Predict the structure.
Amino acid sequence: GIIGYPSVGKSSLIARVSSARPKIADYPFTTLIPNLGVATIHQRSFTLCDVPGLIEGASEGKGLGDQFLRHIERCGILLHLLDISRALQGTEVDTAVLETDYRAIRAELNAYSPALAAKRELILLNKVDLIGNDTASVEQALQARSLPVFASISAATGFGTEALLSALLPLILQERIKRQEERESSGGELPVLKPQEQTRSMGAYRIERDEKKRIIVRGARIEQFTHMTNFESEGALRRFRDVLERIGLLKALERERKGFAAPVLIGNIRVDSYLAIE
């Protein structure tokens, strides 16, 4: 999955290395839906997903990001694209700008899902043709900021893109083996949720009642998600309801309430007024 700020060259990269022809233009949010492209190298192929640009606040519904963060969950490896042009000052590259861009996107991934943020991530420098493809000093400076660059490329000219695919292929094959082993270990059957063993999963929750007959939802990830939700934001509220519906919690709460207006808390936060449940 290719991630990064709007207009950093995600669509250009997927168009360069595959036969996909996404819409490309020099303004934010040109990509409105995720684009898929199949890249082939050394007689092997793999799929790339060009995810619409993220901005700060995407996990709370700003921009287009909250609609598409979930697409990244399906990706085995994240390619985090940093745009040289955003940091170019004359002929010099201000790596502090690149670090700020990187940290902002990482914050959105963490806010959306720690499991998503834990995925393998590779940092790519794009538009390096703007500095004559000479990236040694920039890569050194980013390394000093704990941002190791996996590859420096120019999606526009094709510089470095074939080498990128060659370097990616063994990592993707490793990921395929890992996923196959996970499927085989589960026996191909639906997994049984065990909250005590899956505390990082959003779906690892339990519903209980206290002595005041309040309905309380417990679960490390769902409680963290609720605590981080800004309920004054319409986009964040939509996202909150969508997540609860996706993991089956809304229906579970409807069954638990059974027509009685019992207070509903997730952790120590009361949420029944936000859920529109009977």
